């Protein structure tokens, strides 16, 4: 695009910034509550809520409380919720079989939300890290995170989530070929309308720290996730991954983390024109909240500005822990 403009003073670009009314009128992007997916942490217990220390304002909630919170935020206009289980230590194992237990926390929460708020979209997480004893997203054999065996487990996990009533399956594991395998199993199992939002370009990032605390994976995790999550130095590779996941049957794709990777969001949107999401991850949330708590930035303004940035970068929607706060502010 090559905007044409007369030389100063015929053109004064400040004219269209003079008042709130004209600024509203010429604003190019809008971020609304309808663009949000709210990630929540689910724990065992009843009528129970506990704060996540490294994420001020975020809680782990028992299944009944998650369903209540879902009702509340849906009434505020948030269309979708994404579930992350805090699996008790005795349910983590080498074979990660709790991942496809129909009665696991995630599946119980899905059913409870669907019963309380049938119209709300429920998204679930496909990866073994909440269930494995290594904190890795896949099986570890002789020090290697093995791909094909892991994909077999991920397929079982995804099918159990669809059976529990999930609307959107979110594979966050970054194994090769899992989208195609999950898509085929969903078709075969009669879940042809279940969507896949692929964590297609997920980077090996330091910004996931608080999340790993929230789901209790920090203690377990040995080493890093660099053999499956992306190198922060890469951009062409993100395009290849998105192309691959779309060709295997992903309905929507995600870039993660969000704010440090807005260039990737824009590139993905421009290259493919598919529904594109960003995950404003735990560390991004924690940074803004920590600075706000110290009085160093205005937390509300930073939240709104950060969410708008995703729209400007081409995202259709955002997963953000700020979802309820944004909805209350906007409402
Ligand atoms: N499957 C793991 C998973 N799913 C979502 C997040 C991070 C989300 C966040 O930081 O908010 C992670 C962490 C990781 O890859 O270690």
Automatic annotation (TrEMBL):
The lineage of its organism: Bacteria, Pseudomonadati, Pseudomonadota, Alphaproteobacteria, Rhodobacterales. Keywords: Heme biosynthesis, Lyase, Porphyrin biosynthesis. GO terms for molecular function: porphobilinogen synthase activity; zinc ion binding. One of its GO terms (cellular component) is cytosol. This is Delta-aminolevulinic acid dehydratase. GO terms for biological process: protoporphyrinogen IX biosynthetic process. It is an enzyme of class 4 (lyase). It catalyses: 2 5-aminolevulinate = porphobilinogen + 2 H2O + H(+).
């Amino acid at each position: 695009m090559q905007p044409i403009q007369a030389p100063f003073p015929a053109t004064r670009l400040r004219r269209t910034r003079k008042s709130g009314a004209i600024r509203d009128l010429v604003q190019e992007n809008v971020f609304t509550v309808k663009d949000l997916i709210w990630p929540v942490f689910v724990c065992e217990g009843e009528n129970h809520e506990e704060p996540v220390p490294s994420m001020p304002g975020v809680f782990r909630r028992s299944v009944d409380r998650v369903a209540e919170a879902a009702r509340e935020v849906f009434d505020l206009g948030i269309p979708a919720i994404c579930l992350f289980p805090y699996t008790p230590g005795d349910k983590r194992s080498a074979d990660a079989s709790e991942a496809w237990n129909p009665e696991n926390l995630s599946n119980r929460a899905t059913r409870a939300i669907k019963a309380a708020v049938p119209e709300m979209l429920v998204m679930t997480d496909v990866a073994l890290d909440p269930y494995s004893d290594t904190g890795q997203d896949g099986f570890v054999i002789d020090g290697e995170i093995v791909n094909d065996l892991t994909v077999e487990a991920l397929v079982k996990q995804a099918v159990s989530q669809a059976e529990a009533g999930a609307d959107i399956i979110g594979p966050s594991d970054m194994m090769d070929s899992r989208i195609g395998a999950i898509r085929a199993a969903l078709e075969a199992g009669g879940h042809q309308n279940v969507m896949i939002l692929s964590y297609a370009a997920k980077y090996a990032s330091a910004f996931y720290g608080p999340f790993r605390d929230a789901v209790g994976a920090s203690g377990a995790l040995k080493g890093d996730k660099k053999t499956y999550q992306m190198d922060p130095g890469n951009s062409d590779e993100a395009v290849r991954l998105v192309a691959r996941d779309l060709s295997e049957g992903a309905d929507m794709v995600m870039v993660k983390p969000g704010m440090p990777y807005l260039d990737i969001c824009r590139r993905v949107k421009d290259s493919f024109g598919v529904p594109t999401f960003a995950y404003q991850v735990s560390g991004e949330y924690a940074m803004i909240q920590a600075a706000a708590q110290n009085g160093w930035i205005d937390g509300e303004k930073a939240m709104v500005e950060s969410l708008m940035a995703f729209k400007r970068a081409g995202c259709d929607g955002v997963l953000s822990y700020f979802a309820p706060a944004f909805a209350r502010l906007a409402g």
